[in-house]
Every structure is written in structure tokens, then in C-alpha cells.
């Protein structure tokens, strides 16, 4: 992210191109309504990077949980066939 800008909600209608240009340059634009922050606009490149980050964090958390469960001697292990059969119903 380069900079953060705050713009009133009316600018979405009246100055969309300027807001989109700011976001597509790597900036974030906070849209306010009656002076209160309401939404943030970011460009698609930033959004995709954020989604990738969230996915990686999700995988890290789930792997950490799995490692903890694997330490438990009462953890039931399934074969691949048992696993897929359980998903199919």
C-alpha cells in the first residue's frame, strides 16, 4: 500500500474514475458516510494479494491444529479411502 485516502460516499458517484485510479495505483481509499468510515476500496492486485495472504494464514492455522491433534494418542487415523467415503455420505 502506498497511501490511504478518505473520500465521502458521494465521490463514488461523482468521481469514481479518480477513486479507481487511486486504488489501482496501490493506494487504499476509505469511503466515509456522514464522516464515519464505511468501506475501503483497494485495487484488484492488492485484493488478490490479500486473498492469497488469508488463504496462507488459514492453511497455517489448520496445519497447526492438525499437528496438535496428531500428538494425541487418541486421534483416529483414516485411510484415504475411508476419508473420501466419509465425505460422500
Shape: elongated
- H/I helix tally: 4
CATH superfamily of the domain at 4-43: YefM-like domain
Strand arrangement in the largest pleated sheet: 1-2-3
Q: Rg, please?
A: 22 Å
> How would a textbook summarize the main sheet?
3 strands, mixed
In percent, how much strand structure appears in the residues?
15-25%
- Give the helix/strand class: alpha+beta
Residues in helix, %: 55-70%
Which CATH architecture of the domain at 4-43 would you pick? Answer: 3-Layer(aba) Sandwich
Number of beta strands: 3
Overall pLDDT metric: 93
Extract low-pLDDT stretches.
Answer: none
* Quaternary class: single chain
Following the backbone from N to C, one meets helices and strands in this order, namely EHHEEHH
Query: Terminal Cα separation, in Å?
Result: 45 Å
CATH topology of the domain at 4-43: YefM-like fold
Broad CATH class of the domain at 4-43: Alpha Beta
